[in-house]
Amino acid sequence: MSTHTSTTHAHAQLDVQAIRQQFPILGEKVHDRPLVFLDSAASAQKPNAVIDSMASTMRHQYANIHRGLHWMSERTTEAYEGVRDLVADFLNAPSREEIVFTRNSTEAINLVAHSFGALLKPGQAVLISQMEHHANLVPWQMLRDRAGIDLRVAPITDDGDLDMDAYTALLADGKVALVSMTHMSNVLGTITPAKQIADIAHAAGALVLFDGSQSVVHHKTDVQELGADFYTFTGHKLYGPTGIGVLWARRDLLEQMPPFLGGGDMISTVTFERSTWANIPHKFEAGTPAIVETIGLGAAIDWVSKIGFDAIAAHEAELTAHALTRLATVPGLSIVGHPRVRGGVVSFTMADVHPHDIATLLDRNGIAIRAGHHCAEPLMRRLGLSATARASFGIYTQKEEIDVLADTLVRIRDFFV
Amino acid sequence: MSTHTSTTHAHAQLDVQAIRQQFPILGEKVHDRPLVFLDSAASAQKPNAVIDSMASTMRHQYANIHRGLHWMSERTTEAYEGVRDLVADFLNAPSREEIVFTRNSTEAINLVAHSFGALLKPGQAVLISQMEHHANLVPWQMLRDRAGIDLRVAPITDDGDLDMDAYTALLADGKVALVSMTHMSNVLGTITPAKQIADIAHAAGALVLFDGSQSVVHHKTDVQELGADFYTFTGHKLYGPTGIGVLWARRDLLEQMPPFLGGGDMISTVTFERSTWANIPHKFEAGTPAIVETIGLGAAIDWVSKIGFDAIAAHEAELTAHALTRLATVPGLSIVGHPRVRGGVVSFTMADVHPHDIATLLDRNGIAIRAGHHCAEPLMRRLGLSATARASFGIYTQKEEIDVLADTLVRIRDFFV
Amino acid sequence: MNTTAERDALYDRLIVERARAPLYAGRLSAPDVQGDGRNPLCGDKTHLDIVLNGHHIQDIRHNTRGCAICAAAADLMAEHVRGNTVAQALAVSDRFRAMLVGSPSLPVVEAQPVPLGALEVFAPLQSHKARIRCAELPWIALKEAFSHVDG
Amino acid sequence: MNTTAERDALYDRLIVERARAPLYAGRLSAPDVQGDGRNPLCGDKTHLDIVLNGHHIQDIRHNTRGCAICAAAADLMAEHVRGNTVAQALAVSDRFRAMLVGSPSLPVVEAQPVPLGALEVFAPLQSHKARIRCAELPWIALKEAFSHVDG
Ligand SMILES: Cc1ncc(COP(=O)(O)O)c(C=O)c1O
Ligand SMILES: Cc1ncc(COP(=O)(O)O)c(C=O)c1O
């Protein structure tokens, strides 16, 4: 198992102390202990840059957008639409009109299941993998039950990698219209070989959607280089606000797809008899959007970009390698998943201690991790587990925090055995 | 035309100056003039209480909710779920489980069109009015085209009231399953006789949804007293954050309705073959919600409740009466809509000056109003207009601002004639 | 593990011991009633076999797979309700739940106070709301078992 | 209305006058090409009738319903392009648009600078982006009219 990341400049160094200063919450205490926050994969903490940009928007320059002719509205529209440019740049999307704002990744995938799904015919198939988050499974089940399409599941290997032969075989009959797959597993840490997945899908006549909820946080994303047709991510894991996510899709696809939600801002003209739709991306953004949150997402992207993914990836690779080494020394602990390429997420179990007890006891010591099925029940079943404990790392995570985790796990284990 | 509101304690007095102090943006200048913000019906400005509650959540107590076992997650879950209680109380809903969080009113109505709509059969009908916002029209058109239901439109009188006889007649054949109607028009200011509308609907075997986007801001809302079956509103017009809205629906309806979006948090169990749904309201909240925005909505509701709707309604009734009087003195100006009961929204046109020119020229003087079709194109057509100018008032609006508006309109008119 | 143990009244020695070496685990060959509890969120599962003698719980065994809180709750519940009438057991169940949620609606003076005894080790769950369902699961199974029995 | 007028370079006297009393409003009886522009957002509408003489715009009239910006833009456009070749008119259109959006991609030194003359009264729209489409509408109609004509 390697802890490879796509970084090329391993010398790009993060000043973790300086970064931590920008996250007020990291100075909080929990049960009288300094907070050790190892749950960023569930949702990341927010830097001052994001908090301040949202507060300052509401203090100094806010109004509803698009339909207003007055100064506050025009300036707020510019700020909102400016984030579309930023996101397009962030993903290296060919054009800003291909960026649709949603509430989160979940809504982005539902939008595709609904609007792209409306173009599918019974007998066509959608292909996912065994390691999907419920967000990339349930919408397709609902589409299957609604539209009579087939839902196929590509297996993973025992190490937690996509089984590429089985994947290729599932595409062989040419019935798969869309491959919808995670770009990084939130349980196993697996970074999937997206480019290869896309090439194989395209060769079989299928389009491909990547759920980038976990992966955009850890390395530079280039939807053109990946050969993606759809890409989704969620703001709150990228050090940004809640309530804002992104769907990127190729222009021709967005243009063909019927709208998802109806209402203000997504129309061109409306009569009681019929309505016509606005151009993309507005066709997919009904009603007053999450204006302040979009602006906050822009601040998060600016902030992350300034730090740079070379430095971030190098830092997280180091943390992950350190975690794997240190956790290996905890008696009774097993790492869940040994993928070829991984991001800063490590799941584990401990003999004789249930993950929920681990999480609660760590919490009593100020350490926040996650335990449960991580919204990936079918993956748990594949692994023969009912739950795992999961530590996940972010820009602000320090090696010393991983040491505290490992030491506390040893004491928890002693307590139970 | 009366400017009646439901207030009973007309002596409840607002200290408008003290309130304005709590809105930093009201101290801004636009084109070197003090901002006169008369566009609250599009989106209200935010008091410090809301801004600070959001910033402080992100600074001191934030993590993803529901699935976490650690302190930050449990406290954030409590804060988030606490707002459900607050909203239930705000609407006098029978139970907290009947409160579903959405992005905005638009999504709330789409949710009903999708999930309640899935229970309708071809030949059944949905009945709206001529004065609906596109948010309460387009989703039903989309349902009509998808599900073969009938969409009926109740006419309004020339004064801008619902034509009650015509409304009753449209229900006569018993085919209407749902009446979906605004509780207050965002163009005419009309407050619709909701209780009467609901009684007539129920007598004809129809359920009733009220779009409360405009009305919850101006007076106390009691869904039980109104006899509503569904009720929606949007946070950003209630001095709350963007990205958060509310659907209230009767428990038995929510329980019958299939889910809307699929993903994490809305499931009970998931296998690749099938999934089962969580209890209400979670069944309708897929993925990571707008956590911080929900908490901010709670702060807004707290803040508004502390001021009290008696005082708010009295203040806004006074402003509206003053506006109608003052605007009547502007040469060439016509008020659009003379409803029996109205909230703090006044639309108007001016002979020889296009509403867009009015809006831009007011803006050059620091005055923000809205001009256009206000996302109500079919209503514009009914009125024989292509656009109106609209001034709208909020808690922080001062009589003097209305005077500035009227005086500037006189000068604009002179300029053009 | 001194510091962790000291800091953690929640994981009382009794809980850890009963989770590791339960006294009432197993099955009964001829149960009069049975009950099941399952929490899909974490995979906790418990099965109860109960032998009744009139209104009395003559014997009870549980078969539990889950976290320490759930396993110990099942074992301590079995110990506590053995010999109770069904009605008494259900009263304990209510009292136990009220303790966990820190219910303010709990009557301050009860006509017949229901003692919880060893079950009070679970009181610290009040501040770990997400874990309350772990301790409640066996009691949900108990209610299910009694759902067709008159108290 | 001194203060408002002074504050408002945007509503130049020329714009207000042409909106009120246009010089090129009306219809032509035998137009060679016609064009329409419509902005559903605000109801602005314009119709163009054009008579060509070879490549030259011999005559042009507009029929506009809309705001002052749109109405004046139509009238000043008609005045400006009358006598131009189609190619010249389209070049003015590009230059006009570049002025409105404040395009940084505008070549600093143009081989053949295209003078805008009176059309420059619309320059302040740069800071009122939402109104730019009002001034552009007649030009969109012009492009439509020429879409089947070789420059
Ligand atoms: C009457 C009415 N309904 C619905 C809406 C839609 O609200 P939102 O855009 O927040 O979904 C609005 C506001 O724009 C409104 O005024
Ligand atoms: C891989 C993956 N996909 C999708 C999601 C859903 O993200 P959200 O809840 O923000 O929609 C998550 C996070 O929970 C995730 O880890």
Provide an overview of this structure.
The complex is a heterotetramer, with 2 copies of chain A (417 residues) and 2 copies of chain C (151 residues). Helices cover 38% and strands 17% of the residues of chain A. Chain A is built from 14 helices and 17 strands. Chain A has helices at 16-20, 48-60, 71-91, 105-116, 138-147, 164-170, 194-203, 223-226, 251-256, 291-307, 309-327, 355-364, 377-383, 399-416, and strands at residues 29-30, 33-34, 36-37, 99-102, 125-129, 150-154, 176-182, 207-211, 230-234, 245-249, 267-270, 275-277, 333-336, 345-350, 367-368, 370-372, 388-392. In chain A, helix 2 (48-60) packs antiparallel against helix 10, helix 3 packs across helix 10 (291-307) and helix 11 packs parallel to helix 14. The longest helix of chain A is centred in the first third of the chain and has 21 residues, at 71-91. Chain C is an alpha+beta fold and 151 residues long. Chain C has a single domain (3-146), classed as Sufe protein. Chain: A, CATH 3.90.1010. Chain C contains 5 helices and 3 strands. Chain C has helices spanning 2-7, 13-20, 68-81, 86-101, 129-146, and strands at residues 33-39, 44-53, 56-65. In chain C, helix 2 (13-20) crosses helix 3 (68-81), helix 3 crosses helix 5 (129-146) and helix 4 packs antiparallel against helix 5 (129-146). Chains in contact: A-B, A-C, A-D, B-C, B-D. Chains B and D meet through helix 12 and helix 14 of B and helix 1 and helix 2 of D. One pyridoxal-5'-phosphate (PLP) sits between chains A (104-106, 133, 135-136, 182, 186, 211, 213-214, 234, 236, 375) and B (264, 287-288). Chains C, D: Pfam families: NifU_N (PF01592).
Distance between the termini of chain C: 45 Å
CATH superfamily of the largest domain in chain A: Type I PLP-dependent aspartate aminotransferase-like (Major domain)
How many helices of chain A? The count is 14
CATH architecture of the largest domain in chain A: 3-Layer(aba) Sandwich
**Largest sheet properties of chain A:** 7 strands, mixed
Distinct ligands: pyridoxal-5'-phosphate
Strand order of the largest sheet of chain A: 4-10-9-8-7-5-6
Mean pLDDT of chain C: 86
